[in-house]
Specification:
- Two copies of one chain form a homodimer.
- Chain A is of the alpha/beta class.
- Chain A contains 13 helices and 18 strands.
- The first copy, chain A, has two domains: 171 residues, Carbamate kinase (3-Layer(aba) Sandwich); 147 residues, VC0802-like (2-Layer Sandwich).
- In chain A, the strands form four sheets. Chain A has an eight-stranded mixed β-sheet with strand order 3-6-2-1-9-11-12-10, sandwiched between helices. A six-stranded antiparallel β-sheet of chain A has the order 14-15-13-16-18-17.
């Protein structure tokens, strides 16, 4: 089998951790697999480099920042190769430009255009373990680029796709994907399998196991993903197109997002184009609007509620306030103390009453629902932030106990 | 003018030093020069990286060590570029592989084969300052190589040669090349000019201002070198093919080397091939032999004395001891407490009595000469190590006062 394995920064943070990860890689290789490994920068390296830069120039160009930061993964791959050499195994490290992981010119947040398999194949043909820098590529000018958040996951999936790897294993500090955050929710259980779509919904909802871009790419190229622990040697969660839902679970997981704020624009004239004007203004300021609720009251005016990320809240409020004359609303309310709790599951499509079960759990716990939004595989509710953890627990109890 | 400037690791050791060096570069650029800069890794970076490697594998492959160490210069060039960006200047950093500094495959001690000027010219044409990683290149496989000791000087000279630069300035922590070590010899003075050949003799004799390989390359390609201080803005020492020796000095400098040991093989049969066998054994153990003295005594046996570096002393003694049967000598003596003091000067060629003046100075100071070796531009004497500093001082007084 050809296996691509990815280890994050915390898995290679120091010499002892590197040696442990080398053990996992060695086992994979010694079982007879062609083994390709993608690594992130060691634990604090990126922060240390950013600090060095900040001392000199708080606003460096993104190009030079990429030159600086890309050294982090280069250090990781060299050290990991040395660890495997010490075990007497044949190994070679390669950087993004050596592999030719080609990206666009968007320094600091580049997108992968293509991955050349030539050099990797050459090294695999020599029966070498290939250790590749994650998070980085090279653009058409021959300049180093970095891929932005979750970049190493994306590197791993892109390399796996290019090599038509049999599987792509993403090692993390959790055992896999859980029905809810196991540190916070009693009874949270590990999923054996999950669909790409469910994984994407969970990822964007704050489950943070895998970056969305990587899951999206895995779905597009049909890469067999597996999320598993670099600490415990046991099966993780497989991410696939279709899963056998052995347990007949209606939902796969519950996620919570507290980086959310609600804005209510009250008493807007009930005329065509008002909502359009409002959301166009926000879009042009690059503010993402999530849940939208429009209600018509009896006096011929509308109330429009919507959510934005907490980070965008102040800017969004400012924009709406400045446009008071053109939007002609009566009152403006904002609330940062809200949270979005979502249930995700491909099973929803075929089984009715999933949303109702969720609302029942919240009602029994006397948690008030402020807004609701649904998609084919997701139901999200907006509730008071202080009730968020309790909400996740009671919903989890309802579905999984 | 097109100027290549090289700054060593101590000149870019921290943020404050980087800002000061950025000031020198900025001045050069703002005077209207095309400015290309070569940087070493920051002060302790290389040691830190070596330590990280040693924790994992005390004997890593040289290939992976080069992958690791080359990050050091990459960090330097990114940070320097950020410093110049902060001053509002147009700048771009380039690594060895981006420039295409092509080397052979000798990881850890690679030789430069060629330097492509394409990318550098492109950037200079855009009126950008170009900051290049010293010490590193890329081989025919597309692998990173490092150049070994003094590598950044060599990078600077190679880039200057390829670009036909008007000058190549090597910035160090001294003001230039001195007639003797100014920290130790009273009256040591800075030379305005020195020939390539003299510089090479001085470099190999421990003056340590410029690495020999870089001077050799500068001579071959006629690169106008200048050694100057990165702390004080004043002219340094120019290294050229022919110098105007304004002061009519007979010698250019005096150097001392204490990393030297003397071995005497006494009572060797006076037969052909004995010396050959001895030095072949040493050569095959990669031990460099420097000064050799053979004397014939009255009993038909020879005494052979020679010097090796102190580092090679134990190994050399062991080899000679092991070969006692084949070499058939009577006694073996060794002495690590010796030093080599040398005077260097192209002026020796045309003026007689230079060696005599040196011997006179030593004789007046009652310093015994153990061995003498001469070349066209150099006279070296082997003396007791404890007298070395005094010897340099008295010779200096004789020639320069």
């Amino acid at each position: 089998m050809l296996i691509v394995q990815k280890f994050g920064g915390s898995s290679v943070a120091d010499a002892a951790k590197i040696m442990r990860v080398a053990g996992i890689i060695a086992d994979t290789f010694c079982e007879g697999n062609d083994t390709v490994v993608i690594l992130s920068a060691q634990g604090d390296t990126t922060d240390d480099l950013l600090e060095k830069a900040a001392e000199i120039n708080p606003h460096p160009s993104k190009r030079e920042l990429d030159v600086l930061l890309s050294t982090g993964e280069q250090i990781s791959v060299a050290l990991m190769s040395m660890a495997l050499e010490k075990m007497g195994l044949p190994v070679v490290s390669l950087t993004g430009w050596q592999v030719q992981i080609s990206t666009n010119f968007d320094y600091g947040n580049a997108r992968i255009r293509s991955v050349s398999t030539e050099r990797i194949r050459q090294e695999l043909d020599k029966r070498r373990i290939v250790i590749i820098t994650g998070f980085q590529g090279v653009n058409g000018m021959g300049d180093i680029t970095t891929l932005g958040r979750g970049g190493s996951d994306t590197s791993a999936v892109a390399v796996a796709a290019a090599l038509h790897a049999d599987k792509c294993q993403i090692f993390t500090d959790v055992e896999g994907v859980f029905t809810a955050d196991p540190r916070k929710v009693q009874g949270a259980r590990k999923l054996d399998e999950i669909t790409y779509d469910e994984m994407m919904e969970l990822a964007s909802l704050g489950a943070q196991v895998l970056h969305n871009r990587s899951v999206e790419m895995a779905k597009r190229y049909g890469v067999n993903l597996e999320v598993l622990s670099s600490y415990e040697r046991k099966p993780g969660t497989k991410v696939k197109e279709v899963v056998k839902n052995v347990e007949q679970m209606k939902i796969s997981g519950i996620a919570k997002d507290t980086n959310v704020a609600r804005i209510a624009v009250v008493g807007v004239p009930d005329e065509p184009g008002v909502a359009f004007r409002l959301f166009r203004e926000l879009a042009s300021a690059k503010i993402n609007v999530d849940v939208i609720l429009q209600s018509i009251d009896r006096n011929g005016t509308n109330d429009i509620s919507f959510t934005v990320s907490e980070t965008d809240y102040d800017k969004a409020m400012e924009i709406v306030q400045e446009r008071k004359d053109t939007l002609r609303y009566k009152e403006l309310f904002g609330d940062k103390k809200v949270a979005k709790v979502s249930i995700v599951g491909a099973g929803m499509l075929s089984s009715s009453g999933v949303a109702a079960t969720m609302f029942e759990a919240l009602s029994e716990a006397k948690i008030n629902i402020q807004m609701i939004s649904t998609s084919e595989i997701k139901v999200s509710v907006l509730i008071d932030e202080t009730s968020a953890d309790r909400a996740v627990q009671v919903i989890h109890n309802k579905f999984f106990n």
